[in-house]
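Write out the 3D structure for:
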Amino acid sequence: MATQRCIRRLASISSKEAISSRWRPALLPQSRRVHPTYLTRRTASTAPSLGQSIAKAIEADGPISLVHYMRQCLTGKDGGYYTTSPDPFGNKGDFVTSPEISQIFGEMIGIWIVAEWLAQNMCNGKKITLIELGPGRGTLMDDILRVISRFKDLSKQISGVQLVEASQMLRDTQCARLCGDGAKPEWRDVTWGATSKYFDAPVSWYEDVRQVNIAADEAPFYIAHEFFDALPINAFKNTSDGWRELLVDLKKPTSNLILPAGAQQQEPEFCLALAPRQSASARALNSLSPRYEALSRIADSTVELSPDSHSIVIELCKSIHHANAGGALIMDYGPAETVPVNSLRGIQRHKRVSPFTQPGRVDISADVDFGALAETALRPDLNVEVHGPAEQGHFLFGLGIEERYKQISKTTSDPEKLAILKSGFDRLTERGGLGMGRIYKALAIVPEANGRAVAGFQRFASEYEAAQEQDGEAQSADERPAA
């Protein structure tokens, strides 16, 4: 089996590389995105806070769409979560992601790329460009490139690494990780660039996936890990008059207390409010998917919809079809078959909080609608295949994570390192309750190939499937990642 042969290639990685101090986050209870303190901190100022600015806009023009609210809170130039520090007191971060839990995760993603490259006849001589959406610290891409470096033929085909990242601070961190300590992105004609420490591959940064440049002789491989969950959503509720959009409005204060002169103004709070009439997007909802039309016959049902996810998936599919090679791997959390319901959440300091308090200081995300991603990708004009979604545990076992775990375990006898190693392995693959192996999903988009098997999505006999059979609990519709 191709993936097993790939795993054997990794045996030469030293124990120092295999068990590193960054595995320690595996012992923490929370999961998802890491937002470290190297982001710019909010400075004291007489300027209004982001929440106050949003409140003034609502007071002047009325409630705003949830998409607009989330964009301002997450990526707004003045006070957005990703452009200013969510914790001015130096908290290490709000989340821990799979690549930070264990490097085995990133190695499995690297194995998936190698397996697809082999399955696609080594992409028929095309050069390979690697594209990651939302690369965080650069940890995942670093692990991927380390795996690819073990495959000399593939290494020679890599034409470059393209990272979609809007934050200058994160670009600097990614550059240091991928290009060596002290390396900084340099302006190169049309974008920022540097040279990777792995086989001298050029690295480029872009703010938008539509800016990514794919040459006619290149096959694109996209990686989007915990990217789609952070894209803004619209929300709709079914009423007796049809779908109505849920808008963001000011929450009424609980008291009319008058503050003394000079006292600090209280931060406003927000809430969802039903639009007084149907918007154009609400009227068009049923035409977007049979799933939404079916829900329109159920009283008080709700729908969450991500317009940006739709347009980005189309971009990925078009480039894969145009090259007739490559692929996209999307890994995130959300239901496999149902439409996400009431999944909007805020996280601050590893705890779940309201997404409508302290805008810009709270991370906001929502479940990914994998059904909607698949529906979009399967449009007849896009000419691609979709595999999955598969539970993360199933996907990782199919790629050989168990073999890699056993392989690395033999490189050390240190009890602490072995405990960290096992903790990371268990955390990534466990499927009980809200285990990451269950609530996180993987979905692959590849060129049309008559439905061939894709690594990680094939059926297989293993201890993982045995555990699935023993666990007869049905997955609840509102499963969420643990805070």
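The longest strand covers residues 242-250.
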